[in-house]
Amino acid sequence: MELSKLIYQARNLRSLAQSAKIITGVSLAEALGVLSMHGSLSAVLCKRGGTMANLGLLGKRVVTDAGVAFLVDDWDADTTDITTMNYHDSGTGGTAESAAQTALITQAGPTTRATGTKSQPSANILRSVGTITYTGTLAIVEHGLFNQAAQGGTLWDRTLFAAINVENGDSIEFTYNCTLTAGS
Fold first, then answer.
1. How far apart are CA 118 and CA 173, in angstroms?
2. Phi first, then psi: what are they for 124, rounded to 5°?
């Protein structure tokens, strides 16, 4: 494992400990044959000089209540479009995650969110990869996936993690995976 990744993972133990609850819940759902859905977020820090640091897993969290309602509305009445959940944003607010959240605590990315590149790495995983470039010195501690590029919209998932320090010209490439496990 790269030294920078190992150091970051050690600093991020609190968030990863929270992720253990999700992993345990998913394992229990699989054992019981129950459908489950969860998000996971990883990142690569790209310094303006070209140095890259793979930070690995930042956290695994649940999809928000608003995200679930958005999906149900799309399925039920086609009043929303789940394929629009592809816009990455980040912030500096350290309030704990909650399924009831509808926005980042302290938005700190550009005013126009980064558009992700979508893929399907396996039959049960949806992926979006988005890169956010920063214009100031910040300690980024939260990420959200939204349905629109402009501020506002619906928050699908929010993840809190140990600070990733960025300076003007640095960027973070976020990879968000939504994994669904089938029931039996």
1. 13
2. -115, 15
Closest-CA residue to 153 (of 104, 108, 95, 109): 104
Name the residue among 132, 108, 107, 110 with its Cα closest to residue 41: 132
d(CA 66, CA 147): 11
- Which strands sit side by side in the sheet containing 36-46, from one edge to the other? 52-61, 36-46, 171-181, 125-133, 117-122
pTM of the model: 0.87
Residue 172 lies in domain:
3-181
DSSP character string of 30-87: HHHT--EEEEEEEEEEE-TTS-EEEEEEEEEEPPPHHHHHHHHHHHHH--S-GGG--E
Mean pLDDT by 10 residues, the chain (184 residues): 76 66 54 71 94 92 88 89 95 93 93 96 95 97 96 95 96 95 68
Distances in Å between the Cα of 88 and the Cα atoms of 38, 85, 129 are: 17, 9, 8
CB-based contact 127:175 (threshold 8 Å): yes
- The side-by-side arrangement of strands in the sheet containing 87-91 is 114-115, 87-91, 138-146, 155-166
Query: Token pair of 56, please?
Result: 């690995």
H/E segment holding residue 28: helix 13-32
